[in-house]
Design brief:
By secondary structure, the chain is of the alpha/beta class. Helix content is 22%, strand content 25%. Helix 9 links the parallel strand 9 and strand 10.
């Protein structure tokens, strides 16, 4: 027999509902940029550049501009193919670790204008994104194998000059992606992160800064995996976690707790109580459609199926994360037909979630008299998907919940138990006939504030 009397309004699983610690947790809320991010949670990475031409994952630092032998690209095909997947934006690897620049920079000859390629690839892709209504973002690798000033203070000037070019000449940027990847034999060198961030904030105030940045954190793996409980309110030391990646920086530790992006628990009350400073820092899941991040024909057999990508979508976008799916164009300048077919099929699967709405309700803040909420359907239905969205402007509050279907004779059966919700929770059920559903909040940080809940057949 289901026990509906024990819920957040009664025992809250033994946790305080509104003490000073809880108020500290729920005082952490997203910025306007982070709210926009939550509303567009699926976007794409394009890894393309010198490594595409030389068939490598990482460069050597010895390449010449003329080693980029690709003569044309089909930016329209790139954008339309990615758009068919349901993604709303594209982040282009404007400069990878090898240092080769895909735009006509004035700060180095190691760039597209010296390769024999006719055009500015960053301009071609950003213009096509604008034409097709897609957001455009940039990846600029702090590590540069080619640049002679790397490892000296002058390199920070070089990097910021190039960053300014990208942020002023290519329209609005929705995300700037930095990583801390660095070879073990590279010079030990401090990047001027604060200066990089100031440059982004000044020139593109609406852009989120990801991974080695204060707005979006790395989920901790590149395999599309997420945690059972993916929190957005986390300890502030995570802001520095990726700066230590692969010997990229000196080891930075919190005086209270050493925490990394790979830890399973990043935001429970137990973890937060040990950290004086907290931040809103949502997770981004970066994963490639193929084995590698740059195109290689030897990886043609490793293209993930639409079903596999759809599962990753449900476990990332549907689990309080954003999804950054890498799609590498070929050395012929197009997205491979196999990848294109899978992306189109993925887009159809995502649309299928929302194809048959049964009930969509806006809820708001629950009162102390509402330990659970009932939803009644117009007739007997077979519910397949449920989407729950918290109002994250009020922080992330729900810590545990159950879902029950209601059958004839007011009989209830539990069909799902979950933990945190946050920006979005998408639940896939084995469809069962029911007349309605009951959402029971078992544990919360203060009163739950639910923006909406939607049921689909």
């Amino acid at each position: 027999m289901a026990n509906f009397n024990k819920n957040w309004t009664t025992d809250n699983k033994g946790f305080p509902l509104n003490d000073d610690e809880v108020l500290r947790y729920i005082s952490v809320t997203p910025s306007e940029n982070q709210v926009r991010l939550a509303n567009k949670p699926f976007y794409a990475f394009i890894h393309f550049g010198m490594n595409t031409a030389t068939v490598r994952e990482w460069g050597t630092g010895n390449e010449k501009a003329t080693d980029f032998t690709i003569k044309k690209i089909d930016a329209k095909q790139w954008v339309s193919t990615i758009k068919s997947s349901g993604a709303t934006g594209i982040i282009l690897t404007c400069k990878h670790h090898d240092g080769f620049c895909l735009w006509n920079t004035v700060y180095t000859d190691f760039c597209i204008s010296q390769s024999g390629f006719d055009g500015d690839i960053v301009k071609m892709v950003s213009s096509e994104c604008k034409a097709q209504g897609m957001d455009f973002g940039v990846y600029l690798s702090p590590w540069d194998m080619h640049e002679k000033t790397y490892g000296t203070p002058e390199y920070n000037d070089y990097f910021c000059n190039q960053l300014e070019e990208l942020l002023t000449n290519y329209g609005e940027i929705f995300e700037v992606w930095f990583d801390g990847a660095k070879g073990s034999d590279a010079v030990d060198f401090e990047y001027d992160w604060e200066r990089y961030y100031e440059t982004v904030r000044r020139l593109q105030p609406k852009a989120n800064i990801a991974i080695c940045g204060p707005d979006i954190r790395w989920v901790g793996n590149e395999g599309g995996k997420t945690r059972k409980s993916e929190y957005s309110v986390v300890p502030a030391p995570l802001l520095d976690a990726e700066k230590t990646m692969k010997k990229s920086q000196h080891n930075i530790k919190s005086s209270l707790q050493n925490i990394t992006s790979r830890d399973e628990d990043l935001g429970s009350r137990n973890v937060l109580s040990k950290n004086a400073n907290l931040v809103w820092y949502p997770a981004e899941v970066d994963v490639s459609i193929r084995k590698g991040w740059f195109y290689s024909k030897t990886d043609d057999s490793t293209v993930k199926s639409a079903s596999t990508l759809f599962d990753i979508y449900l476990n990332s976008v549907g689990n309080n994360c954003t999804l950054l799916l890498n799609i590498p164009p070929t050395d012929k300048g197009v997205i491979h037909s196999k990848d294109a077919r899978v992306l189109k099929a993925l887009g159809k699967k995502i649309l299928s979630i929302y194809h048959k709405p049964v009930l969509v309700e806006k809820i708001g803040e629950l009162s102390r008299e509402k330990g659970y909420v009932d939803f009644n359907f117009d007739r007997e239905r077979k519910i397949k998907y449920i989407s729950i969205i918290e109002d994250i402007t009020k922080s992330q509050r729900i810590e545990a919940f159950d879902l029950y279907i209601r059958k004839k004779g007011d009989r209830f059966k539990k069909v799902y138990s979950g933990t945190v919700i946050g920006a979005r929770k998408i639940i896939k059920l084995t469809p069962k006939k029911c007349l309605g559903m009951r959402l029971v909040i078992r544990q919360s940080r203060s009163n739950p504030v639910i923006k909406s809940i939607s049921f689909y057949e």
